[in-house]
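Bumping with the actual sequence this time:
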Amino acid sequence: MTPAIVTAATAAATDATCPTARLDCPFVADLLKQREGYGRNAKGGVDGPVVVVSSNADDGPGSLRDALRHARGPTWIRFASDMTINLNSQLRVPSHVTIDGRGHAVTLMGDGLGIYGADSVIITHLTINGQLRNFSQAVNVANGSKNVWVDHMDLSRFGDRLLNVKNGSTDVTVSWTKFHNHDKVMLLNNLTSKNLFANYDRDAIARVTLHHNYFVDTVQRNPRAQFGTFHLYNNLLQDWDFYGMSFGLEARALVEGNIYDNAVQRQCKEPDEFPTVEGVKVNYCKYIPSAAARSALNNGEADGKRYADTRAKYQYRHDDKAFLVVRDNLYLRDAKPVLQDYQADKVPPVPYCYAYQAPSPAVADEIRRYAGNTAGTPALPNQSRCPPGGGQR
């Protein structure tokens, strides 16, 4: 059965009737009712003016950069038409802003979005292609940002990561996003010192939800997570070339209902080489025959050697492994399970209700169809999971 689809009305119709992004505007209400996870309180530009981007220029009147520059309070940004914007540099997204690409095909080329020290940001229905031409990120959430929702994005081809959440940022949800044709996809917290735990107090506050995302034709870090609290459910990982997920350094993660799908014999889709921030040009095609057995790295493996080499010097009092609850995941074709529960009592229960789906090939097909910068979102079946005593969506 084809799922019901939740869509917004066209930009022209909704902007004409709602010059201010009130909660009772259909295009506002339709989007906000889909919020889940740790970023569920993001309001973006609610109660602010609706600003319509009319120019595909990098800068100047009517451009997206100009709209962001002049967002002095809540601002809901939409687009007048389909457009491809070739960026000369990263766009900075301030607090209380929604960038809403629904209704049009909007693509950012060459660079992406930086969310730095911002509160309450929503980004939805954009395609961002870095063209492997620089070492920026598609979406960089950093420097104490909070209440961020990244939804229905199509992200590919950057020299650095496609998405970061780091440097004391927290309460972030990433949903229905397609990550593809990329090497090191996602970093949830970043090592910035030879002392692995130098910034533990800052970064352990991170709380991030990943759900219904589609990772396909990537190499690794789908995601790589450390220090914070993470909830990963109903994500689809398909045909990674090196490894799937990675957890360590006392991350506290609930990993449930995800689908891992990989084949030992398949063609490599990587370019001849990926440029990297380390200045090393690499290609991982040779790892494909063994990648299916690495749906994840072993717990703590990514930083295990460095931990062992520096433990005595820095007198670590933290574990190199992550605290994990792993349940109800599905492995298709040649994919093999790796992650296991580890000190599960240290993984906190999620404080919210969420629309969970028992993993199946049909759910995988649904994610393939609707994740990314797509025209709709399936109305999920009523299989809500809630913490003991209830919770908020």
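The tokens above came from a reply further down the thread. Residues 1-14 have pLDDT under 50 and may be disordered.
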